[in-house]
Amino acid sequence: MIKNYFKIALRGFWKHKLFTLINIIGLSIGISTSLVIYLIVHYDLTFDKFHRDSDRIYRVVSNFSFQGQPGYTRGVCGPLPGAIKSQATGVGFTSHIFCLSPDVFIAGKKGGPTKFKSQDRVVLADDAYFKIFDYVWLAGSSKTALEAPNQVVLTSERARLYFPALSYDQMIGKVVTYDTLKATITGIVQTIKENTDLTFHDFISYSSATATNALGDLLQLKSWGSTSSSSIVFVKLSPQASAANVQQQLNDIFKKNNPPHKGVPANSSTSFALQPLNDLHFNEKYGAFDFSDTASKNTLYGLLVIAAFLLLLGCINFVNLTTAQAAQRAKEIGIRKTMGSSRAQLVIQFLSETFFITLFAVIISIVSAPLILKLFADFISPAIKADFIHQPDIILFLVVLVITVSLLSGFYPAIVLSGYKPVLVLKNQAQSNGSKTRNAWLRKSLTVSQFVIAQFFIMATVLVSKQIYYALHKDLGFKKDAIIVINSPWKARTVEHNLVLLNKLRAIPEIELVSIGNAAPFSGSTTSTRVSYKDGKKEIQTEVEMKFGDENYLKLYQIKLLAGRTLQASDTSTSFLINNTYARVLGFRDPHDAIGKQIDNINERKRMTIVGVMADFYERSIHSPIKPLAFLISKKDVNQLGGFHIALKPQTPGGDEWKTAIAAIGKAWKEIYPDDDFDYHFYDDTIAQFYSNEQHTSTLLTWASGLSIFISCLGLLGLAIYTTNQRTKEIGVRKVLGATVVQIVRMLSTELVLLILLAFAIVCPIAWYAMNKWMESFTDKTSISWWIFAASAIGMLLAAVITSSFQTVKAAIANPVKSLRSE
């Protein structure tokens, strides 16, 4: 029986080659998209799921509020971990790790030690870390490996990098130097192969940090008021413990040791929260770690919706074309029923045909998935691979997908086809029964659904692209073109070295202007402090962000001055500038009124005078509002003089002045910092990176729009072929009676245009609501213009009419004699 089904299916496919090809292409696009999106979503949703009792593992995070402005960090104050161990109940294990980025040195036989610069996955850790998280030990013991100072545990991958010629047992006892700290290897653990954000590879014993060395200073073990994002605490709760109860204990401990003190506003606070382990990979407020990117669940859910829509489009095509072909198989069904076939057997026959088509589509998808992943390699993790051998869950997913698509696509056509009555179909009356009308309305409804999905994707793509263009071309309040930014190496930098480099840069003829300071106007790096202003009646306390630069900073970035004067080299300790937002916070509607006012507790607790008010400029992406800002000059703090801002002279047409300038800058860099790599970036490229998520979204939507239009047009082509074939004689009669080609094409296309307009009316309110929800994340945003909707409708109309015209024009210009020659 199965063999017979298979033969009949193949004969049917061969007889209707074009329809079969359209179905396979439509389904393969939907299934390929679903498979690739499954790989992406599955990758992100499986992070850190493999640890035992992962539901009891939490990271302690800090929440801040200052005058109603929230702040978040994954770090905690130094004394908290010790207080948790001694004072909190319900906590099974507490592990305090501190993230470092040292240079690593491995002793070599010749030419001195091998150096690994600024390794970012090195941590101070205690033995509790390996009791909370699951690692396989290849050498050494988890009980003793980190019990003494100056010990280190390595992952197998890192150990092989440091000592490629030694076995794991031979590595025990070897010495690794971290900056100046010499640590002895006491253990090797297997590098975690599962998806995880815990990608640390060097674990230095926590006791290596003492009150007498630099590591001890970093930990700030006695300062309840200082918080570092590098100071991370993980806890594993006891089986019966309540996370809410433990969290309350932590906040009580903090209040006991750090009571409110004078000068802190009443609406300012610090609190701790327990962040579940499964939230690390998705919470953008805290971030996972500096070296690990977070994923957005909203983006993942959006990808799933895209996959579902594209898969649905392929299924709609199948249902449309199969039901449209129903009349052509009417006699076959009548004969089968007359010969004794039951309706169940016919349903199985038609479902098996759908299964074979879906299976072909899946095979195409399996072949194309690696190629599609390469297309998106720029913004997906390189760990995402279509590895069907080592990922059995993919096979299971494909099996479920084949069954689901087969039923979704084939069930209704199978019911319709198997329901024909033998007496009617053998009398050529199959088209006269009521099912014809129902099938026509179903096809129209499904076609409208296709157009709704396609137009939604078009509208979303246009809006996202419009917002990205708006963000990248908006006047941010400063110049961003032809500016290079370089940062001196923080370990080797000194004020003297940077000033020498500054003079060398100023001597390069292709450079127009150089400024030294810290962060550029628009960057992810910020420094803030609490300052106060007394207006005679009350004290206004404000969290103010600070930027440091020299007297050329504002001139180089062309930041406008609204009132007062710019800073001079002598203003290091007496005067500073504020932005217009801060002037308004202080109550000055006219910027000139702020000139001469004094602010307390700024820049090392000094009282300084406002001498100028700058125009507002964006310090972050336009997702965030502009905040109060102070600009100061510093001549002594090396961290405030770590960045060089270099404005290049205009380049002549076809010239290579910028290339010459960059080479000269690199040469000057190596003269001052010979052991550090020269790394530079153009400032406008840095700004564009702030909108990488939106650009990735735009790329995905562009692909989704293109694929949805392509699938919809494939379905239209199939329906156009079917419709013109059914109306061949009608077209011939009309031509004999004098109808022109244009009239016939218009007649065949009118229904299609009406369906597109109906879809447009349905999709407009849906798209408008979705666009508004997406735009809520932007403080400054473009408008949702009427032409976005109009362009979508016109674009869809053109694509559909052009696609169907291949068949309608062909039918309209055909010789009517051929269509009327035979009955």
Question: What's the structural blueprint in terms of helices and strands?
Answer:
Layout: H1 2-15, H2 17-45, E1 57-66, E2 69-73, E3 76-77, H3 80-87, E4 91-100, E5 104-106, E6 114-116, E7 122-125, H4 129-132, E8 137-140, E9 151-155, H5 156-162, H6 168-171, E10 175-178, E11 181-189, E12 202-205, H7 214-219, E13 227-228, E14 231-237, H8 243-257, E15 269-276, H9 297-324, H10 330-338, H11 343-375, H12 392-418, H13 422-426, H14 435-473, E16 483-487, H15 495-506, E17 511-517, E18 527-534, E19 539-548, H16 553-557, E20 561-564, E21 575-579, H17 580-585, E22 598-602, E23 606-614, E24 629-632, E25 643-648, H18 657-672, E26 681-682, H19 683-689, H20 692-726, H21 728-736, H22 741-775, H23 786-813, H24 816-820
Parallel strand pairs: 7-12, 9-11, 19-24, 21-23
Antiparallel strand pairs: 1-2, 1-14, 1-15, 3-13, 4-7, 4-14, 5-6, 5-10, 8-11, 9-12, 10-11, 16-25, 16-26, 17-25, 18-19, 20-23, 21-24, 22-23
